[in-house]
């Protein structure tokens, strides 16, 4: 599940994931933290991973991360911060609130494909994940 409010970034992320062998059927987007939390509360299928932008309307990624990681039923889901920010404060705060890794969005599509490939390789092929607790 990908929390990203920019439609252009959504399209680029989707295309980059497809380039990395991810089926479009496996990709779902929400536009803000409120929609993310609603989807997580109402879904029968818990996502394997969440890519989370920090700067979104309504509930931003910072607030959504805190709520996810403080929830007994959601805290096991890996959360990858994927945002334009590279500020030390955002990086430190994200890790303090439980994110699993932090990526700053790259400037080029090729770098986007590479970064999402790294995320996919690690989280989908290497890491051992818990389906639910």
From TrEMBL:
InterPro entries: CheY-like_superfamily, Sig_transdc_resp-reg_receiver, TCS_response_regulator. Signal peptide: none annotated. Residues 1-120 form the Response regulatory domain. The modification 4-aspartylphosphate is found at residue 53. PROSITE patterns: RESPONSE_REGULATORY. It holds the Pfam family Response_reg. Keywords: Phosphoprotein. GO terms for biological process: phosphorelay signal transduction system. This is Response regulator. It comes from Halioxenophilus aromaticivorans.
